[in-house]
From TrEMBL, chains A, B:
This is MarR family protein. Keywords: DNA-binding, Transcription, Transcription regulation. Residues 7-140 form the HTH marR-type domain. It comes from Flavimaricola marinus. The lineage of its organism: Bacteria, Pseudomonadati, Pseudomonadota, Alphaproteobacteria, Rhodobacterales. InterPro entries: HTH_MarR-typ, Metal_resp_HTH_trans_reg, WH-like_DNA-bd_sf, WH_DNA-bd_sf. The keyword Transit peptide does not apply.
Length: 144, 144
DNA sequence: CCTTGTTAGTTACATTTTCAACTACTACCT
DNA sequence: AGGTAGTAGTTGAAAATGTAACTAACAAGG
């Protein structure tokens, strides 16, 4: 029997940390706007980067196209985003935030920023810098 | 419009890192043993810590009791674990790995250890130490 | 013993996610 | 032009998860 502990297993600890740190923020977009995590992510991408197609959101957010498709459908039905056909290639649709979508994004991204600061406050500046650098590398890696 | 980027939002980056780093290991327990993540975690706890009740696994793994209940049911049906009634209090059931369960645990925990080393190898010893420390703190936090 | 409260674990149902087609459109090749 | 292949996005069924209600067992006070 090996003595390798789950608490030493990065995928496990990353998952626990991700879950724990998500709980509080999840309440915000859930309670205030009735959004799911997928929807909040789509909203955020459009708010931060402007007009995008669903495919572009898939690529940037590492989300499967069915997830994005359903998130977009729900966000549209709640008037947070609007679709617009692309003349040159009618397979694409440009997605944009509506006024309501922009307002929700402004509210939630400010809350996210504040929450991030609160999370980061428990570390020293050096720790925080290294943590963010390591996480970025782990998150980006296409294949280990 | 705020300039706060999702890539600076710890819950998001943690989630991406967790997902990315889980993919490769997931293949192992899925393809070799047909397990789900919940099942692998239950197996791991029993393999690492010996006999436990479902409740104890819930507490240690931060898993909801329905998840554990279902994971145990599936693992039992595949003969990876065995239940044993507790005489003193018949609400409890002691859970143990069978021979097959122990073999699966030995195989998978060795693979996990090797995979963890591979992940950690992309960081310097200092980075790795700080990363693990920060993650442990983030994962443990009961309420931010 | 009987009531009330608590705990371990399961089950049922609604919500989400995943997987595999499927439609509609564009691109390329001859 | 016509055939083949590829891409963007949607849909439906199956799998997994979350929530809440449930059963069975214990505990403690009267």
């Amino acid at each position: 029997m090996s003595d390798f502990d789950l608490r030493d297993f990065l995928p496990y600890v990353l998952n626990m940390a991700a879950e724990q740190s998500s709980i509080e923020f999840q309440k915000l977009y859930k309670d205030r706007y009735g959004m799911l995590r997928t929807e909040w992510r789509v909203l955020f991408h459009l708010g931060r980067y402007g007009t995008l197609t669903a495919k572009e959101i898939c690529d940037r957010a590492n989300m499967h196209k069915t997830k994005v498709s359903r998130a977009v459908a729900r966000l549209e039905s709640r008037r947070f985003i609007a679709r617009q056909e692309v003349e040159e290639d009618r397979r694409h649709e440009r997605l944009d935030l509506t006024k309501a979508g922009q307002a929700a994004y402004a509210d939630l991204s400010a809350a996210a920023q504040a929450f991030d600061a609160k999370l980061a406050a428990q570390f020293s500046p050096e720790e925080e810098a290294i943590l963010r650098r390591c996480l970025t590398r782990l998150a980006a890696l296409p294949k280990v």
